[in-house]
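Quick one: structure tokens for this chain, please?
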Amino acid sequence: MQWLNNLAAEGAHATRLQTDLEYFVSNLMIRPKEGALVPFKPNAAQLKLHQALEEQKRRTGRVRAIVLKARQLGISTYVAARFYHRTISNPGLRTIIIGHERSASKNLFQLVKRFHENLPPDLKPSTGVSNADELIFDKIDSGYLVAIATHEGAGRSATAQLLHCSEVAFWPDLPIQMAALMQTVPDLPGTEVILETTAYGFNDFRKLWRKSEAGENEFQTIFLPWSVDPNYRANVPPDIKFDPEEIRLMEMHGLDAEQIFWRRNKISQLTNPETFPQEYPLIAAEAFIASSFDSFISADIVIRARKEKDRAARKANCGRRSCQHWTGQNINRVPPRPLHHQGREQARFGHDGNDRLDQSDHPRAEACPDQSRCRRSRCWYLRSSDRARPRPVSNQRGELWRQAGRTSAYR
């Protein structure tokens, strides 16, 4: 009966190889940062992405995902391994790889060829075509097509079930590219479209990301911060002192001292330290910090703009038309004239005899100096010190028109 047990074990092994990606990837070889080839073992960021994609696939029957990531998390490697596994395990599948430039597309295709060349012989499918742009497995009629994001629209004439789009934030005319590419993938169960990239400022990709966040298209947003990678750490000196910003990040994002010290070292290596949030974001919002590497809005400008906005809001209730902060929305705050001088002004501004404007509403508010015939003690324009000094009626009328922002009583 031992042979039967062996046969069952082999059958279970073959089934897992075909259906279980986490089980299959141990047979793939990758070139890590250290250099020498090693078996592929998914890291924390790759596992997090895998779980999110599998959950969407269980829920919708297919995958449509946009991955915003920090640098060097191995996301391109994971997507390449995921699609290679499906391509060699399912007859008739076509996979398209598209990078933002020729060298990027070449590097992604080299990942796939390295997987194939180092795969155990009993798992490796027969190769019919293998060149710089194609890899076709003839006996199962599956394979790869490699393209570059161009203005004309990459992959427009092809049909594929799996689409890997890399560094889409750097693509020219992204809306045109996506309109063409989405027509190459049929709207069927089992199809997968994965867009993965680092951010590149306020461009078309940011618009696509925001629409996906708002649920305005079929793509699921997946954000992977640098803190998810356990390798982004550095040994902390015993005399280290963290600044208030670093302490705030530790409290807000649950970072430890080794992660913060790695962050400090990485910032010191960059030519422009302000690019760090774009290359290594902790939250998705800070990845979109500028439209280009040399066009950042500095923090002091943002703070100053916020202060100006607050100052304008505090003065928004000013009703004097001569004030630089006056707007049509506060026209009803114009200081009222005494009853015997309102006339047309009452009909124009809608005041009654009880409307009053406190002088504290405007930093330069003063009582009218021209007190002549007005004897109302509640008159806003009347100062008690001026009651004994009446002024000509004509002077009072002219000053009141000026206070209301009008130069003539007849216009």
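The chain has two domains: 41-232+280-291, 318-403.
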